[in-house]
Amino acid sequence: MPESADVVIAGGGPVGMALALALRESGLQITMLEARTAASGDARPLALSYGSRLILERLGVWPALAATATPIRDIHVSQRGGFGRVGLAAAEAGFPELGYVIDYGRVAQLLAQAAAETALQCRTGAQVMAWHGGNAARVEYDWAGEQSVCDAALAVIADGGAAGDGTAVDYQQCAVTARVVSERTHNNTAYERFTHHGPLALLPDGEGWALVWTTTPERAQLLCAMTPEIFCAELQAEFGSRVGNFTAVSGRASYPLRLRRAPRTVPAHIVLIGNAAQTLHPVAGQGFNLGLRDAWELGAHITAASRAALGTPAWLDAYNARRALDRRGGIGMTHALVQLFSNDLLPLRLVRGTGLALLGCVPPLKNFLVRRMTFGARG
Predict the structure, then answer these.
(1) Taking the mean position of all CA atoms in its chain, how far away is CA 38?
(2) Which pLDDT belongs to residue 283?
(3) Integer Cα distance of 279 and 90 in angstroms
(4) Domains of the chain by range and CATH?
(5) Cys-Cys link to 188, which of 28, 73, 80, 250 (CB 3.0-4.6 A)?
(6) Residue 72: beta bridge partners?
(7) Residues 297, 52 contacting (CB under 8 angstroms)
(8) In this prediction, what percent of the chain has a pLDDT beyond 90?
(9) Smallest Cα–Cα separation from 252: which of 103, 43, 47, 39?
(10) Distance between CA 64 and CA 179 in Å, rounded?
C-alpha cells in the first residue's frame, strides 16, 4: 500500500529543510525524502543576503549560524581593464550588514538539526525516481533497495536533480571556489570584479577570503591543478593589489555553470522550489537567497490554505503569481550581468564603465539596487 502525507518534500537540502521548518506549526503531516544519508560536508562559500538572515531568524536558526558567519558591510564593484567602479555600503542603505558568508554545509547542517526537532518524518537514503500530479501527487522512490510510493495533497520538488527537463543555458564557464589568504585584512568588504573571463568574487570569510572565480572550463582545470604559489600569482594578476599579496590557498574545487529553469507547465499538486525551479549563475550571489524566499513564501501559502485546496490549479496559480516577479527578476539580473560583463569588446567596456560610474554617483539608484539584492524584485 502507498504511504500518505499532506505534503511530501523531495529534497532535504537547505531549501527543503527551510520549508519543513516554515510548516512546523501547520499541523500538516510532512514527509521528506532525502537521497543523502549524512549531513552535507560541502564547504563551498555561500553568500546570504540580509533578507535571508531575517528569514532564518524567523525559522529559529540564525543565532547558531551567526556564530560562524562573516558579515559583509561593504561591496566594491569594478571591471578589469576599464574605468568605472561603485561602492555599496550597509550604512548608506540603512542595514546593519549587506550580507554574510558561511559554508553551505554549515547552513545545511543547522537547518537539518532544527527540522529534526519537529514532527517531520525524514527518510534519508531515499532516491526519488519519479513524481506525478493530477488529482493528487504521487512520488516514487527507492529506499533501502525497495521501491516505495508516497501519495500526498502536495509534492514539493526541492532537489534540482529530481526536477526533470526545463530550459537550460550552458554558459561554457566554470566556477573555481577556494579559500585564500592575503596580506591585508578584509574589514568586512566584499569585492566583485568583472574580468574578460567572467566575474571574480572575493568575499570576507573568517580571517581570510572565500573566492568564487568564474572562468573557462579549460582554465578552471588548470587553476585547480596549479601549485599554490602559481595559483596565488594568477589570482594576483587578475584581481590586483587592493588587498595586498595573496599568500595561501586551500580547498580548491570547480563546478560548471548553467542557467536552468523548470518547465513552464507542471502538473496539479506539484510545485518546484529552489534549484528545482531555477539554477542561477553565482554572479551577485542570488541563487540560494532566491530559493530561500521560494521556501518561505510557499510555507506561508500552504499555511494559509485548507488541506483541500493544496495543489489545486487555482492554488498553484496563486503561488506562481506570487513568486513570478521575484523569480524573473533574479534570473534576468544574473543572466544580463553574465552577458554584459563576460565580453571584452571595447564598446562594451565603455558602456560598463559608464554604467558603474553613474551608479556610483546616484545614491537613490544604489539603494534601489541594494534593496533588490537584499529582498528580491519585490523588495
Answers:
(1) 21
(2) 80
(3) 27
(4) 171-258 (3.30.9.10)
(5) 73
(6) 99
(7) no
(8) 68
(9) 43
(10) 22
DSSP for 273-331?
Answer: -GGGTEE--SGGG-HHHHHHHHHHHHHHHHHTS-GGGTT-HHHHHHHHHHHHHHHHHHH
| Predicted local confidence at residue 4, as pLDDT | 94
Cell numbers 527537463: residue: 165
| 156 contacts 9 by C-beta, under 8 angstroms | yes
Check residue 97 and give left, alpha or beta (phi > 0: left; psi -120 to 50: alpha). beta
Residue 345 has pLDDT above 60, yes or no: no
Q: 106, exposed or middle or buried, with CB in 10 Å at 0-12, 13-18, 19+? A: buried
Residue type, 193: R
Rg of the chain over all Cα atoms, to the nearest angstrom: 21
| Euclidean distance between CA atoms 72 and 298, whole angstroms | 28
Cell 511530501, residue?
Answer: 8
Q: Kindly state the average pLDDT of the residues 109-135.
A: 93
H-type helices in the chain, by residue range?
14-22, 50-58, 62-66, 90-93, 104-116, 217-225, 228-239, 287-303, 313-341, 346-361, 363-375
DSSP 169: E
Query: Is the torsion defined by CA of 28, 34, 38, 39 positive or negative?
Result: negative
So what's the pLDDT on residue 112?
92
| CA dist., res. 306 & res. 310, Å (int) | 7
Average pLDDT of span 42-58: 92
Under DSSP, the state recorded for 160 is G
Full-model pTM: 0.91
CA–CA separation, 376 and 226 (whole Å): 38
- 284 against 162, higher pLDDT: 284
Query: What rounded mean pLDDT belongs to the chain?
Result: 89
Q: Half-sphere exposure (CA, 13 Å, Cβ side) for 125?
A: 7
Residue type present at position 91: A
Q: Quote the CA–CA distance of 191 and 84 in Å, as a whole number.
A: 14
Helices (H) and strands (E) in the chain, counts: 11, 18
How far, in Å, CA of 369 to CA of 93, rounded? 10
The DSSP bridge partners found for residue 202 are: 191, 211
